[in-house]
Amino acid sequence: MARLLAKEKLGALIRGAMDKKYRVVGPAREHGIVLFGELSDPAALCLDELNTQNSVKEFFFPKTEPILKYALGKHDVALADDFAAPRTVLIGGRACDARSLVALDRLFGWDYKDKFYFARREATCVITLACDRFDEACFCTSLGFGPRAPEGSDVLLVPVEGDAYLVEVVTDKGGALVAELADIFTEGTPGAEKVAYPEKKFELAAIKPWLERNFEHPFWNEEFLACLGCGTCTYQCPACYCFDIVDEGDIHGGQRCKNWDSCQLALFTRHTSGHNPRPTQASRWRQRLSHKFAYYPGKFGYEACVGCGRCIRNCPVGLSILDKLVLIGREAAAAPAEPAGAQP
Amino acid sequence: MARDNIYLPYLMKVDGVRDETRDVRTLRLKFARDEDAAGFSFKAGQFGEYSVFGAGECTFCIANSPTRAGYIECTFRKAGRVTKALRDLEVGDTMGFRGPYGNVFPLESWYGKSVLFIAGGIALPPMRCVIWNCLDLRDKFKDITVIYGARTVGDLVYKDELREWGERPDMKLIQTVDPGGETPDWRGQIGFVPTVLEKAAPPSADTIAVVCGPPIMLKFTFPVLDRLGFARTDVYTTMENRMKCGLGKCGRCNVGAIYICKEGPVFTAEQVARMPAEY
Ligand SMILES: Cc1cc2nc3c(=O)[nH]c(=O)nc-3n(C[C@H](O)[C@H](O)[C@H](O)COP(=O)(O)OP(=O)(O)OC[C@H]3O[C@@H](n4cnc5c(N)ncnc54)[C@H](O)[C@@H]3O)c2cc1C
Ligand code: SF4
Ligand code: FES
Question: What backbone phi and psi angles, to 5 degrees, belong to B162?
Fold first, then answer.
């Protein structure tokens, strides 16, 4: 016997959470686009699209958030940083979305702990939907996980035959929520799983060593000439986290904010002297790829990419990180690294 | 307010203002709250995020020596939004400071050796902290030499301290300005720092070199030090990549896999040589 949720009961699940005073965040159609947002009505939940346009990260690490408030006196300043994260149920994300949270946990938690991020993490119960379809931009399986991976989720709903979800409780937090809403679930024998696995497209193990060997390589200039440096790819990315710190206010006071920033923007690294260590768009793409597939895994053991494909679907000039990873995979296979010790 | 917010600065009072040049100023800051002062310590080489509420934050090294505790000094050039707002502050005004961040110059491992400081332009502040630190522990070191250059005589910072260093019998100061930057009464050298260094040819035996300056100066100074016989592991510098958080989070300051705000800003020339050309 297993715990099941009838598909038609998704709305009841959301209603139940709302009745228990949770804020519920899920995909909903807005001006024709499906976006994650706070649901005011269970009927607004929209699962038509494979992936939402925005990622879930903004519910943990908002586009802009005050990190302190200041009130200005003649010579004095008063500071405040009161903050409370709303109890939230985040429903309708995919395994890739959930995995991005595990990647972000590493960054915001190492050494100095970002209390704003973790307050939201702790207050949020993540209910993930395993995928019953994929498109050509999806590549979770190439990254060593897949559409029903539990990592980062508190509850995983796996579609099964018979218009139902198999309910997998992943964490204690998820278990507590399921217990709170127990009457919505049923016990039964699940039908066959309807999970769709995209085919594996490159050899992940080859990427990091290639990047580490080829900081200088014609590849960088040749492949990224078309990039406009608009930053769309990084803003849409669930695992990108670069930010700026900016004050906004008036003569009486205001707030200091942590705002999303992007390594694809030309001014990102420019020194005050005008010198820019990453002067070309090619060097910024090299940073993006290397950071996601070499620096971040080297430091935290996780790729800062989850294969969701948002950057690919939304790039205005059609650049695809997946295509580039496939190319790197081929290059690596054609020119394998010298065995250790053979290098000069 | 609990100090669990990693972005929360200490409130500081401007305690002194000194103009170094036309556009470079030093501020002396004291903690607005005694309990903050009591819990604070730093070491030579570290930096912080200095802020004016309403204008924002910017990154400077801590320019005073940890041997002179109880206050923080920063020396900065007016460049943009925050540095302009910092210049508008007067004694008694309140501002913010987060820090100290980053690694340190391993001073203890230099005990018993000579130290050669080489600085260009506005890069004297990060070095001033170490110079005073060494001078305040003078008997721990053999010879102390400072080579300092700026574009013009007017651009030399810490003029009072330069005079004091020039007069001290227990150290040697060589000052230089770029050709054309001299005044009629200039008694120092004329020439670029690397050239002056090569001519002065300080001995490399048992000597640590500390080099701070713009990337171009470093590029020409390291080879001279190589020729003078300095081991690259005995040559130290600080790197100043654009920073925002100082906490290893905002993703801005890395050179390859190395996050300068966490693993730096102090590196040896040997470490710098192994970095990808992205600084
Ligand atoms: C570890 C470290 C230590 C440092 N130590 C020191 C130090 O001791 N002393 C020191 O002086 N500096 C130091 N710096 C450099 C210092 O951080 C910068 O000079 C400072 O952050 C500039 O801040 P700002 O807000 O005034 O400049 P910003 O407003 O950010 O301006 C920076 C540059 O951008 C230009 N700019 C500004 N607005 C615009 C615009 N709208 N459009 C186009 N261009 C614009 C400005 O002209 C300027 O050249 C250090 C940096 C690091 C990383
Ligand atoms: S979305 Fe496309 S054009 Fe825009 S920065 Fe990313 S790769 Fe470049
Ligand atoms: S300054 Fe933010 S990561 Fe280094």
Answer: -60, -40
